[in-house]
C-alpha cells in the first residue's frame, strides 16, 4: 500500500515539474518564503490581537498556530521521519535551498490550515476567503518546489484544520471556565 502511495506522490511531483516556468517559479518561491516560520500568519495575527474587538480571534489564531507547530513539527515529524523528495529524487533544478528537517507533514501547510480552521470558525467570508486562498497557494508551492510530497501536504491540511478548529473549541469552552474575565 505504501508503495502505491509513494508512486502516486512521485507522479504528482513529476507532473507538476512539467509546468515550471520562470514567472511561476518566482510566485511559488515567494509564497513558500511567506510561510517560512509562519511569518505571514504571525503578521496576520497582529491586527487581530491589537484590536480589542478581534482579540479573542487573534488569541485563537495564536493558539492554533502554536498547537499546529507542536503537533506537526515537534511530535509527528520526528515519529514519521519521512525524507523529503528533494533529498531522494534526481533534481536538475532545485529552486530553493533544501530544507534540513523531515517532510511529513508539511509544516508550512499545517500552519496555513490552522489559520484556515480558526478563520472558518471565527471570521466572516471576506476574511476567511483570502486566508484560504493564501493557505492553498503556500501548500501548492511546497509540492511545486519539490520539498514535499502530495501526501505531506494533505496531512498538513488535515492536521492544520484539526488544530485550528480544536483551538477555537477549546478556547471557547475551557478558557472561560478557568479565566472568567478573558
TrEMBL record:
Membrane topology: Multi-pass membrane protein
Pfam families per the UniProt record, alphabetical: PAP2 (PF01569)
SUPFAM superfamilies reported in the protein's UniProt record: Acid phosphatase/Vanadium-dependent haloperoxidase
Domain Phosphatidic acid phosphatase type 2/haloperoxidase: 62-168
Cell compartments where the protein resides: Cell membrane
Keywords carried by this UniProt record: Cell membrane, Hydrolase, Membrane, Transmembrane, Transmembrane helix
Taxonomic superkingdom: Bacteria
Sequence intervals crossing the membrane: 27-49, 126-145, 157-179
InterPro entries membership: PAP2/HPO, PAP2/HPO_sf
Protein name, UniProt field: Phosphatase PAP2 family protein
Organism: Ruminococcoides intestinale
Amino acid at each position: 500500500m505504501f508503495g502505491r502511495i509513494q508512486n502516486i506522490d512521485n507522479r504528482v511531483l513529476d507532473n507538476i515539474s512539467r509546468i515550471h516556468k520562470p514567472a511561476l517559479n518566482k510566485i511559488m518561491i515567494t509564497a513558500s518564503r511567506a510561510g517560512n516560520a509562519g511569518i505571514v500568519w504571525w503578521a496576520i495575527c497582529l491586527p487581530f490581537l491589537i484590536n480589542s474587538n478581534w482579540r479573542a480571534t487573534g488569541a485563537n489564531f495564536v493558539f492554533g498556530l502554536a498547537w499546529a507547530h507542536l503537533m506537526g513539527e515537534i511530535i509527528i515529524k520526528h515519529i514519521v521521519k519521512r525524507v523529503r523528495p528533494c533529498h531522494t529524487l534526481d533534481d536538475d533544478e532545485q529552486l530553493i535551498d533544501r530544507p534540513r528537517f523531515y517532510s511529513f507533514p508539511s509544516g508550512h501547510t499545517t500552519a496555513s490550515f490552522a489559520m484556515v480552521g480558526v478563520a472558518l470558525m471565527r471570521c466572516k467570508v471576506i476574511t476567511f476567503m483570502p486566508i484560504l486562498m493564501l493557505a492553498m497557494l503556500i501548500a501548492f508551492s511546497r509540492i511545486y518546489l519539490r520539498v514535499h510530497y502530495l501526501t505531506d501536504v494533505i496531512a498538513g491540511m488535515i492536521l492544520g484544520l484539526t488544530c485550528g478548529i480544536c483551538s477555537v473549541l477549546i478556547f471557547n469552552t475551557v478558557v472561560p471556565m478557568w479565566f472568567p474575565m478573558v
